[in-house]
Amino acid sequence: MVGVEIKGRRTTWSLADSLSELERLADTAGLRVVGSLDQRLDRVHPATYIGSGKVEELMALRADTGATVVIFDDELSPAQQRELERAIGNPDVKVLDRTALILDIFAQHAHTREGALQVELAQYEYRLPRLTRAWTHLARQAGGASARGGAGGVGLRGPGETQLEVDRREIGKRIAHLKLELEEVRKHRAQYRRRRNEEAIPVIALVGYTNAGKSTLLNALTGSDVFAADQLFATLDPTTRRIKLPGGREVLATDTVGFIQKLPTTLVAAFRATLEEIAEADLILHVVDITHVNVEQQAATVLQVLAELNATEQPIVTALNKIDALPEREFGDTPETEDDNTVAISALTGEGLPELLARIETAFDEQLVRLDLLLPYQRGDLLGQIHQRGVIDREEHEQTGTRLSVRVPGDLAARLEPFGASEASLAPQELDD
Prior knowledge:
Elements: E1 2-6, H1 15-28, E2 37-41, H2 52-65, E3 69-72, H3 78-88, E4 94-97, H4 98-109, H5 113-127, H6 136-149, H7 159-199, E5 203-208, H8 214-222, E6 239-244, E7 250-255, H9 265-270, H10 272-279, E8 283-289, H11 295-308, E9 316-321, E10 342-344, H12 353-365, E11 369-375, H13 380-389, E12 391-397, E13 402-408, H14 410-416, H15 428-432
Parallel strand pairs: 1-2, 3-4, 5-7, 5-8, 8-9, 9-10
Antiparallel strand pairs: 6-7, 11-13, 12-13
């Protein structure tokens, strides 16, 4: 592994912590780390990312350990990747970066058609500018034949370059096709969200750093069996389940892909359809692994990604997960939280889950608008939505309709405004209450 700290580059992660995470990623991908190098630079070297002296040190370490893969903790340009492979001089040694490693893990864990499409698009867009690596040997053969035949530069467009152009053209077509398919997925998700809005069921998006315990929490809250494992990016495919809140209202909870620092831009673009679920949610449930050594950095990374997704307007409830694994904790001793929107829980043991559900319900209630209504009997559809999404404080049946005092979300309140009851139409005892 190779890590670089650039002077003046803003980051909440130390170089050592970032490399530790890279090692976990490598382990998830099935690799065994046998050594690491790090360097602090004023700026990135354009040709090889690291300095020439560090390249020589890397070559020596690779030879000593017999490593077959070199992984950089930052994304390399195609030219830097080629130069480093040329310097190592062994065609059996792969030079990868963090992005390639994450894409490989995603490819292992994408099980649905949507997930597979998103990963394939991200992989092709990442690999397209790096295609020359696969055909350098053919280009050299073409160049050599050209030189012997005296054809000069014309020989550079021999079989190697021709094959490369064919590959680029085919991959370009595949990328265009994948984008069309994913646009259909996006439209389908948008239609699904519209139907969901018509049914007036609020949506919670579970977000968090990878391996924070989102899937385990979803299983605990819903009694479902979403795949959960102690590994990075165990869940890629979004899963939605119903949750009943203490007051009886039902909400939908969607488990989303875990975030990570230095999240590849190709992944963000490819997973647009999935990530839109977060921006469109009514409430965000931020799951935090309270036991992780980098808990503050992980939480900050998640909030940064939410800001990039323009998902900062919704209320956020934070679940400090895995309190069962806190060291030196006496049984029943739940950590104190200063923030009213933060609850300490264990998704594994169920501790704190009733308090979490109550806090989620309160967060929804705090967003509700108070209305007094006279709802005609033929608008049973609206009454059903009020029952599902709001709180009914009073309900009386009159000759012309149902008189209600309710608290409902803003979007539903807008649809109910035409049925608002003026103060003059209310009975005196109702006003006193």
